[in-house]
Structures are given as structure tokens and as C-alpha cells.
Amino acid sequence: MSxxxxxxxxxxxxxxxxxxxYALFLWGDWRxxxxxAQDGDGPDESRMASVMRDAADPPASGSRAYFLKGTGVPVGxxxxxxxxxxxxxxAPDFAGxxxxxxxxxxxxxxxxxxxxxxxxxxxxxxPGIDSVHFYTTPHWMGLGVLRTxxxxxxxxxxxxxxxxxxxxxxxxxxxxxxxxxxxxIDYHGVHVVAGVNNGADTSVPxxxxxxxxxxxxxxxxxxxxxxxxxxxxxxxxxxxxxxxRSTTSIATPVITAxxxxxxxAADKADTPDLAGKPEVxxxxxxxxxxxxxxxxxxxxxxxxxxxxxxxxxxSTSYAMLQSGPTGPDxxxxxYGWDFRRLPRNGHNQYRVTLDRPVGEASIMLVWNRRVAGTxxxxxxxxxxxxxxxxxxxxxxxxxxxxxxxxxxxxxSASTVDNVEHIYIKDLPPGEYALEITRGxxxxxxxxxxxxxxxxxxxxxxxx
Length: 463
Hints:
Elements: E1 2-7, H1 9-16, H2 20-27, E2 32-39, E3 75-78, E4 83-86, E5 98-101, E6 106-108, H3 110-119, E7 131-135, H4 137-144, E8 161-164, H5 174-188, E9 191-195, E10 215-219, E11 241-243, H6 248-267, H7 272-275, H8 278-287, H9 314-322, E12 335-342, E13 347-354, E14 358-366, E15 370-376, E16 383-390, E17 394-400, E18 407-412, E19 419-427, E20 430-438, E21 446-455
Parallel strand pairs: 3-7, 3-8, 4-6, 5-7, 8-9, 9-10, 10-11
Antiparallel strand pairs: 1-2, 12-21, 13-20, 14-19, 14-21, 15-16, 17-18, 17-20
Helix pairs in contact: 1-2, 3-6, 6-9, 8-9
């Protein structure tokens, strides 16, 4: 049986104390069943004694990526219900970390302890993280961060990354949660990492993996949710990436730690404000991913139904991050990224000259869904939340442009996703262009992140 955390009015009242009345106003008649995507009461800690520092391949000791630790990146950890959401804060693994319970007192939660040990602390993949806030799932969605049901916008609480190793198949108000999550990511530049469910026969859960702007995580065996989203835009590809772990509960913190490490590198880049954007980090993670055995995508879809873009390699993503940004008016190298804004009906081209064959070309385009946010009521002059979403529509093409002619080699043109992906093996030498066009009716300029790797040899598939 799955470990479940049920939220009711009584628990909200007891767990939130003096703010219980406000919590009741926020949550009304909601009934949330949050389920860890994991059989049993939580991962066996003995399995966590040794944790790889990379999702697929530990960087060589001589690689600068090896020394990334997530230093200076504050994290939010979301687990469980009131009274049952904290890891063992006194564990020697977490010595020196400022660990703040934001949802009241709690007994030790084994699931939270296991996922925490993957991310930070002495044995974690990002041991440089020194500040973590902990939240129950209802508090994070309510007063803690999203402030769902209120007229107020989300508040990131000083966090840059939130990790969610829990799921909910759906509930009243799920759309507002997802829209507030997308707003949090787009407006505040926060990164949200969320697991899908376990089992290849399970559907993509509503919370939190169905958020457009979040990084949704599955497992590399394919034994996790697929079949495309059913909430807030049906038919979108999720998960975005997968990890070679047996459960999504443990795969998710692997990506959380990887994001924190890449953010440390972004903070040291020449353009930290651009390099650390959620669109950029997501694009370099996905473009750098290795395809597991059996990876394929249906016609018109940018990603594999269960395997997303594949298994990220932090050393590859780090190399891509170090190689950018590279604009349309500059020579494009084998690795790189760019972030810029495109007006309505606009287009950009990135010229690529290949003097030798490329064994594997992986190109990723990522943009955020936008949500209106808060506006002032004309009659009362009070702020109120308006959760109206809007989404741009980008198309990504690889063109062969040698000899004065232009030929489409590959195209990704989903009409529902906010990612596009081109993946080609054995690309011959020649003159090429990466073309980005925009065809939606929204009048404002829209930001996008483009990331690419052009490897001389194809990567060995993850088994």
C-alpha cells in the first residue's frame, strides 16, 4: 500500500495553529490525497548509503563540473502532512545546514529523510546547500508559498529550488495550484522539480508534474507515468527527463540536486541573470540528456511518452552552460545555449557549420507558460489574483542552407507543449541553421531558451 497523507480541515487547523481560520478560508472544501510515488512507507535508507553525483555519469575528477556542490542555492523541500513531514534534523549527515521547519513541529518522516539525503548533507549530491526550508504539501500550496485560494500571489519564501517527491491524481482547485506554480516559476525565476507516479500503466498526475514550467521526473526503465497529461492542457509530454533509479521518489531529488549544482555554475557565469533562468536550466538539462534504450516519440510529439528527453548528464549540461550564451549573429559552437525574446510572428536563425559528421545532434527549445498574476481592482483599489494563463507557440527547425538553398532536415512543431526537441543521429557535414519561429496571436514578446549539443559520436544508450 502506498504511504498516503490526507489533508482535512481538522489537520489544517491543528497544523497551522493561529492561522487556522485563514487556512480554512484558503482551502474551503478541498480534499487532497497526496501519495508518495513509492511503495511502502519510504525508501530503505540502506539503499541510500552511496549516491552518484550525476544522474547518469559521475564527472571525471578532473572535470570542473565535479566540484559543483550547489553552494549558495537555498532549497525548499515539500513532503507529507502536518505533524509528519520532516527528516531527522539532528542527523550527522545534515550538520552545518540551516534547516527550518515552516509548517510546524513534526515527527521524523522516513520518506523525507531518504529524499533529503540524496540532495544535501554530507552524502548528498549537492553538499554545498546550506539552507533548506521544509513544508507540508497543504501548507506549501496554501499559506507557505502558493497561497492558493487567496487574492495574493505566490511568495517563493527566499527559495530558488523546490523539490516534490509526492503526487496527487487530482482535486478541486488543482488548476489554480498548477497556474500558481507556473507563475512562481515564470515570475520569480524559481525552479520546481516534481516526480511523476510509479508504474508504466499510471497516468501523469495532476500535482505537481502537470505544471508546464516545472521539470517533471520519471525513471529510466520506463516504469513510471506516461500517456501524456490530462490536466491543464491535455496531451502534453511529461515527464521531461528520467533518472536510472527504481522509483520516482528517489529520481526526483537527483534532478533537484543537479539543478542546484547547475545554478551554482550559472551564478558564476558572465551572464548569471540569463544562465540561471528556469527555461535555460531546463533546456540544457534536456538537450544534454542521453536517450535510454527504446527511446522514441510519436509523430508530432517532441518527447518520448515515458522517457521524456532522456537521462541528463550534469557534466554535459555544465559544458553547454559554459559555452553560452551564443546569439543568432554569432558563430555557433558544438555546445551552447541562448536566451532571448521573440516578438509576435518573429523568427531567429542560428547558423551552424559542420566540417565533420556529427554522431548525435540534440537541440531543445523551452519557454514558459505565463499567468496573469495580480491586478488592482478598479472599484476597490485592492489587489486580486487573476489566474488566466496564456501560452506562446514556437516551432523549431533544423535547415540545411548550403549552396544558396534551404531544406528542412527536421522539425518539432507541437501545438500543445512548451518544449520542442530535435534529435538526429549521423548528421553529415555541411551548412545548417537552427530556425525558431513564433506563430501565436499574443502581442507581447516572449522569452525562449535554446540549447544544443552536437557530438561527434552518439552516446551509449542508458540501459
